[in-house]
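U., I forgot to send this yesterday:
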Amino acid sequence: MQQTILDGRYALERLIGEGGMARVYAGRDLRLNRRVAIKIPHSHYLTDPDFLSRFRHEAQAAAMLTHPNIVDVYDVGQDGDVHYLVMEYVEGTNLKAIITREAPLPIARAVDLAVQVALGLHAAHRAGLIHRDIKPQNIIVTPDGRAHISDFGVAKSPLSTALTQTGIAFGTVDYLSPEQAQGRPATPLSDVYALGVVLYEMLTGRLPFTGDSALAVAMKHVTEPPVPPRQLVPAIPPGLEALVLRALAKDPAQRPASALEFAEALRAYDQAAKQETLVSPGLARPAGPPPRIQNAGGGRTAAPPASGTTGRVPIPPPRSTPTRAPSQDGIGCGVFLVGLLVLAGVLGLIFVISTGALGQLFAGWGGGGSNGGGATITPTAPPETGTPTPTPQVTVVVPDLSNYSGEAADQLLRQVSLQPVRREAHNAEIAIGLVIGQEVPAGSLLPPGSPVTYTVSLGPQLIELPNVTRIPGVIARDRLTAQGLRVEVREEPSREVDAGFVISQSPNAGLSVPVGSTVSIVVSRGDVVRFPDVIGLQRDQAEQILRTTPGLTLIFVDEQGPDRLPGYERYADNEVVSAQIENGSGILNGEYVPRGSNIILGVKRPG
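Result:
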């Protein structure tokens, strides 16, 4: 940053923070003589009119907010090509550093900080401003415990005129709501979700979701339930755990209805927790066994009902003991006799049936008063037993479908009386329309009409390349590899794109390529210059090259004799033996140095 004073008023003192979109400097308002924080977007955003319009609009929207838990915005302006935002300077530590150093935080402290942030978010939401990037790094905690929400740089307000730029994922994936991860618009309840993640992290010292890549974490926000906090820290009260999990609901409708409702629920919990006894119809448990009284019915005891105690759950009276019917002497003997009679009757009936007497009895009924013309029931002799002749089962041989087209495989199976079942799948090695494989191996025997499933190739799976330019290289690589692409990274100097951000990609965004294809991305080294290969050359050659290398200035040639140059005899007279940046470290051929560096060459002094 070459400018140190913006608009003759705001002095830049030192860099205190840097994110994906801007740098933040500690500074001073010379007109009002007060400390301020000054945010300046990265240089590659300065050519993006949509971003600059958003930057101004969101600054104006944030400037309308005044709340003790939000960093005040004082001014927004432009000095030449430099756009800037002037904010309140808050002396303190960001919450991420506190979590890293101290987590799990004491429960009361974590709840208090979450309440403060929720109240600040409520004020922003009432003004129509959604933060969209709530995370501990954007929460500054003063030494007296006051939380301040900062960095509304990705906020969305009614003043916004541009949508999110293609290829830029606003928000931090660790705290990203499921709806944002799915590409849906953020709402105030998205901020509530992010605050729920922050509270989870304060209470447990861990994030609810982690993964090997940003995309993996985003998908867990959408599909996986978080580990209940009490499994990580058993000391967390169940009521507080329930509030945290409610804020982390996948469905926004299941979360607290607003940041204010979340704050009030946390405050109510905190106040109740400070009381001597916490009574809740769903959660209260007596501290010990209640005193018991003698039931009037004798023998049964119950806890006496609480009286005169506000908020306690009345204990229902004990259930009445069921009264048994008076016993009847001698009933056992009667039941036994009846059982014997029933058993005798059953055995007699079996005997009658088995001996044919039942058939004769029916015959007598049918023939009474006739001259022998009545029907008789005659048992039929069972068929002679013998070895059954097995029925031969017809089978067909399953053909080999490899190298057939899907249509030909269908016809072949029908010709041999088998039922074709076709499936399709992507395959990079088998041509489109040809059979990849079959579930029933060739040569198997099946009854006619049996189904045989085979899979036909759809060719390689194609995906549309996302736009990964102007985002950090590590995020670009994660996005591409998560889609099954290989990534080659090349680094180049750039005066327009900040170090670490993607300058270009090949193939270009929007093209469809097979999964497994290689995508090359060029990542900026920043505004640096490659040091030419002058070490080992003669002094006059090196001086000539450096004079024609833009961005480098040769300021001194240090002639070194045998007292200062180890291995003096190995070098030729006037040979360049070393190079370094003024007041800096040594450099080698091909290394990159900041543009504008002053160079000192070491040369062997002629003997």
